[in-house]
Design a protein that fits this description.
Distance between the termini: 26 Å
Helix content: 10-25%
Number of helices: 2
Largest sheet: 5 strands, mixed
Radius of gyration: 14 Å
């Protein structure tokens, strides 16, 4: 179970990423493709071509973390290469749903007030 503060942003790298990549090469993808800062403390999520493995890159203030999840059966709902090049931004709750197997494309958000921190 991930517990994330509301100030943490979550970015999905659309399309497929080579899961052989580790800390430095994933950080280079964040800088180059997503246009983000891997040392920002935000979460950057990557998926393989078969959509059965995920990696999350996160900087906790003292170093980079790479977390991985492999599904034994099924696939993750993942945006294709036709998504924006800067990736797709999710809320922490939406990441939890994605990790739990919920297809976010089929879900819809109801009208709701949400004051996001600046």
């Amino acid at each position: 179970m991930l517990t994330l503060p509301p100030t943490v942003r979550v970015f999905l790298a659309a399309g497929a990423t080579d899961m052989r990549k580790a800390f430095d090469t994933l950080a280079a993808v964040v800088r180059g493709t997503l246009g983000g800062d891997p040392l920002s403390g935000h979460l950057f999520v990557f998926c393989n071509r078969r959509r059965d493995r995920l990696k999350i890159l996160h900087f906790d203030g003292s170093g980079l973390w790479v977390s991985a999840k492999r599904l034994e059966k099924g696939t993750f709902s993942w945006p294709g290469a036709d998504a924006p090049a800067a990736g797709v931004e999710l809320r922490a709750g939406e990441l939890a749903l994605l990790l739990g197997g919920i297809d976010l494309r089929a879900a819809r958000r109801r009208a709701w007030y949400d004051r996001r921190p600046a």
